[in-house]
Amino acid sequence: MDSFFKDIRYSWRGLIKRPAFALVALVILALGIGANTAIFTLINAVVLKPLPVKKPEELVLFNDSPGEGTRTSDGDLQAGRWDIFSYATYRYFREHDRSFQELSAFRSGESRVSVRRTDAQSGEPAERASGHLVSGNYFAVLGVNALQGRVLTNEDDSTAAHPAVVISNAYWKQHLNSDVHAVGKEILLNNTAFTIVGIMPPEFFGVRVRRPPDFWLPLAFQPQIELRDSYLNEKNVYWLNLIGRLKPGIQIGQAQAGVNLELQQFLTEQAGSQLSDESRLAIQTSYVSLAAGSRGLSGLRFFYSQALRMLMVIVALVLLIACANVGNLLLSRAATRQAEMSLRQALGASRARLMRQLLTESLLLAVIGGVAGILLAQWGVSLLVARVAASSPLDVKPDLSVLLFTAGISVMSGVLFGIAPAIRATRTDLTSALKEKATRGRRGRFNLGSVLVVAQVAVSLILLVGAGLFARSLINLQQENLGFNRDNVLLASVDARIAGYKPTELSAVYRHVYDRLSALPNVHSATIASYSPMAGTKTSSTVTVRGYTPNKGENTNVSDVLIGPNFSETLGVQLLMGRELGLQDTPASAKVAVVNQAFAQAFFHDQNPVGRRLTFEEDSDKDDFEIVGVIGDSKYDSAKEKADKSVFRPILQVQDQLAFANVFELRTVGDPLSVSAEVRAAIAQVDDKLPILNFTSLRIQTDEALKQERLIAQLVSFFGLLGLLLSCIGLYGIMAHAVVRRTNEIGIRMALGAERRNIIWMVLKESLLLVASGLAVGLPAAWGAAHLISSQLFGLNPSDPVALLTAVIVLTIVAALAGYLPARKASLVDPLTALRYE
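RE: above sequence
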């Protein structure tokens, strides 16, 4: 240890004496290690970190999909995988299961609520907040306690119980001003008085990894919170996610078998004496796929985990380039220390002792670079989180996992870039060192340093090709024909439910708002819809088309969208035949619908669908809808996917719960957001209690839908350019070092009549030869890497010649510039000075 500390002190003095060398090496290492630490920190926060609850490894989810919503069915038997559950299913599992200490249920999605204080002044506007319905044992199963007060219990989860609510720490601080007496106070949620019984700690956000809801409420109060009929006794409404805590000694596989047996027993009891062969087959094919619940449900993990792993590979390549760069610097330095190493050996130092000293210097560089990399990574991660998940409770502080990872790659990097220079520096003797000046200009041009440059160029080409492919894929997505005109359309989301409207009153209020909005001077046309394109919302229904017999197992699910008058004109969707839905389609008129081209092709092929009839299986009245028009296909969910088969029904004709979720869409003259104040005033003239939840434009919304693709393209491009920069630094370094070593030779050549252009070409030729060798190695590797990411590309062949050619040209030009600078410097050497150079 004494000699080890001496080595560290000596290495530190050596770095201090050569500040330029140390600074360049540390910057390169900080960039390489920092990039790896930043991406690993995100992977740790998004993919690896467990929930901040008691013994998260014991938790098991009955479905790990981040999807949310409600599904209804006209039958009791749901064949296949169950990913969402009815309240009756949850109760059966809870009463019959033997694998879990306890099972808990929570609403598949959050609910919007209107919030008022009980002491609020008359006319004071209500606040908008989010609530999450959970079973009474939700907090007990997770193993968390309140910061103040208590959590919900099973006694609270009863229709006969006094309404109780637990609030998030953020809501307590931001809306209740950290009132120490908040527990015990009453608060009006959708005009129902709830008593605050507890305040959760700041680190708790629930099972879903995102911004915590403002309120946690008992499932029994679902009708008061969602302002609709109770789901508690509805066997065919599926609206719950389940989570449980395993009993000691029980493995997830054992629990899986038990749960599936219980599900089949439950379905058999539900079917009763009506158990047909078809029902029996459906029961046998029904199952639940349990998943580890330690990390909760995360949309970020679902959407970004694959991209983050790919980025981890990319930054590992950047680190390899950085290590090659620092290795080249150390090789250059080793060449100047041969006399020192030979003298040390002559004085008795063993080669192993010298290698240990040199590796200590490399490791010291790597450790300092790692510390700088952590600081750089925290800055980079903060920027990424602000762009990707500003409202998510991601903990990106460097924990033990991040520190161990950074320490590991720092040590690995130190050994990686230090071992070859250490071997090279100690492979010498005193005689060869004394002859160094005489042989300086006659060394082989292509050595280990050249090999490292070739490797850097090859890896940089891989990164640049990847960046080009992702950039071109993003351009294709942005230019994809979505079937609607996304420009100059304002979206105003409203929720009449929390304003107290009944389903039967919606048609009249929507008609009044539509008339007001259509009359605005800067509004060209207006409509209303249950949801807008690329909003992340979807309603599916099963249809039966009169005269069409589906094939066995054929999926007749369609997208079910409620729309208002002037829908095609407002969104710029082409009307192909028939008519649009209009003001005449009211509850008193015959039921009608418009279908898209994909629907017409699937069910009618080349026949005219206008006048044909269809039925929604979920429709309790089983009324027929007459198809009165066909419109062009439009992509509502993803620009990457084909347009769904879609049915558009008149929202003014619907008088049930489906009509509550809606958005007003307005085609404007000029910037759509500039008329938001006029739209707000127009809606307030109809009813000032009708809440406007959000204003945005269709352009912004469609761009937001491409956020993941845009971020990946930007990050891959950034790391590709970083790799290119580091490669060019390496190329410049080795060529500059070669020029210095060949100063005598250059002087002789110039003294014998060589012109400047000859000297420039002599040096530049070697530089271009290194680049060409790197391209030859990198092109096959880039082709293979491109095929590995082909599933993430859109409208693009992984062998895209434009991306390959662009990467080659950019790399050649930039590398040629890096080689030209030392070549130009060589051409300016004074022959007399060069001949005397030592």
